[in-house]
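Hello support,

Our group uses your service weekly, and this is the first time we've seen a run hang past the timeout. The protein is Exonuclease. I'm not sure whether the cause is the sequence or the server load. Input pasted verbatim:
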Amino acid sequence: MKEIYISTDVETDGPIPGPHSMLSFGSAAYTADKQLISTFSANLETLEGATAHPATAAWWATQPEAWAACRSDLQSPEVAMRAYVAWIKSLNGKPVFVAYPAGFDFLFVYWYLMRFVGESPFSHSALDMKTYAMAVLKTGYRDSTKRNMPRSWFDKLPHTHVALDDAIEQGALFCNMMRANQAA
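Update from on-call engineer: The timeout came from a worker crash unrelated to the input. Re-ran successfully.
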């Protein structure tokens, strides 16, 4: 079974799930040859008893369009996460979670999956794009930031802080990184 790379981006109101909420998430499913085969996104109601972290709330105040986008058409986390699992299972391939940085995005997605669905189609695994860039570029981890990546890896796609936009953009970046790695 071929792998499906599910580039995922989350928007949150704080640094960790539980005390803070995942406000929205978007996933873009790509094949290794960079075909965008499907997308999923949802805006979530906040967790009962959770509050926004002051620093994150201050950042959101500077992003009014992205804030408005993630606060419309809200769904309960349980409904959204169950639909997400069904979407992942409908894809024709083995799902691989991909994010930049995976340590943050996967933390929220995995926590929400386990809390509201009781399972993760990704198991316990996530592929971190920055770590992959480190290996491809043969650089140190701290030197593998987006500003140090070759411009040829970037498509002209927006990074808007709207979860689905960013998932699509980062998924294309990941596919370009894989292509560069295969050419090397």
